[in-house]
Amino acid sequence: MSGNKTGPRPSGKTGGKTGGKTAGRAAESGKAGARDVIPREDGTRAALIGAATIRFGEMGYAAASIRAIAADAGANIALISYHFGGKQGLHEACAEAIIEKLSKVAGSAVLAAADEADGLPAQAAAAMLERTVSAMIAFLVADEESRPVALFMMRELAAPGPVLDRIYSGLIEPVHGAACRVWAAATGAKADAPDTKLAVFSLLGQVLYFRIARSVVMRRLDWPVIAASEHAAIDRTLATNLRASIDAARAANGLGPLNTGSFGEVSS
């Protein structure tokens, strides 16, 4: 890869924004080499975020080298300053990308349902929770792209700081709060009750375990891979747990059990 040590760098404070962008474009042009094409800025930015998410997750913020991140992304190291302002900005950008991704995976449907939770029928609310859990399983368990996301999240949870604060405010609090409102609609509980919050955390925790302890689960079950049949088995198990939890909460609130059908569906 040409230009890593000698290529132009952003001029920083003395050159201002225009100088930084000029240097960044020159660095990208040098990286393109014989292709004679300047890569799209969003493509380079995404490659750096992807490489950094892996490095930060596997090694931690302090140990992750921006030179190694740039090499992994196939980019000039100067582009980290150009796109993010430095290592901390790149770290924050990784968090924002994870917030966006996981909000789409688990949050969009449940957030929309939560807006109408007060009038949501119990069976529809239960079905929404099942679909949300299923979507999380599909990404966190069946999709290998979730591995660096999970590792990054675990690092931040183990050493809380500003990045975890952003993940909490941008992802965990709104999605968990929405799921609590949908849980309340399904069970007759109060959305802000501690038992409701704990119940929703327990649902999320079950899914996360199958990602975090993936190798242990595969070894214990003699699974060489987690393919379609294994994914379906996990789906069925967590669906059964969810329905039992909903019915137990309904009973505690003086309500009868729901008649549930297949995963993601609730019969009338």
Question: What structural keywords apply?
Answer:
mainly alpha; 268 residues; disordered C terminus; 2 domains; 11 helices; single chain; Arc Repressor Mutant, subunit A; disordered N terminus; Tetracycline Repressor, domain 2; globular
What is the topological layout?
Layout: H1 16-32, H2 41-59, H3 66-73, H4 78-84, H5 87-114, H6 122-140, H7 146-158, H8 162-187, H9 194-212, H10 214-220, H11 228-252
Radius of gyration: 23 Å
End-to-end span in angstroms? 61 Å
**Broad CATH class of the largest domain:** Mainly Alpha
Question: Averaging pLDDT over every residue, what do you get?
Answer: 83
Q: Biggest β-sheet: count, sense, barrel?
A: none
CATH superfamily of the largest domain: Tetracycline Repressor, domain 2
Spans where pLDDT lies below 50 across 5 or more residues:
1-41, 262-268
Number of strands: 0
CATH architecture of the largest domain: Orthogonal Bundle
> What's the total helix number?
11
- Please provide the ordered H/E string of secondary-structure elements: HHHHHHHHHHH
Number of domains: 2
Q: Give the overall silhouette.
A: globular
Strand content: under 5%
**Helicity level:** over 70%
Q: What is the third-level CATH name, the topology of the largest domain?
A: Tetracycline Repressor, domain 2
What does this protein look like?
- By secondary structure, the chain is an all-alpha fold.
- The chain folds into two domains: 12-85, Homeodomain-like (Arc Repressor Mutant, subunit A); 89-252, Orthogonal Bundle (Tetracycline Repressor, domain 2), CATH 1.10.357.10.
- 70% of the residues lie in helices and 0% in strands.
- The protein contains eleven helices and no strands.
- α9 (194-212) packs antiparallel against α11.
- The longest helix is centred in the middle third of the chain and has 28 residues, at 87-114.
- The protein is globular and about 60 Å long.
- It starts with 15 loop residues before the first helix and ends in a 16-residue tail after the last helix.
- 35% of the residues are buried.
- Residues 1-41 and 262-268 have low confidence and may be disordered.
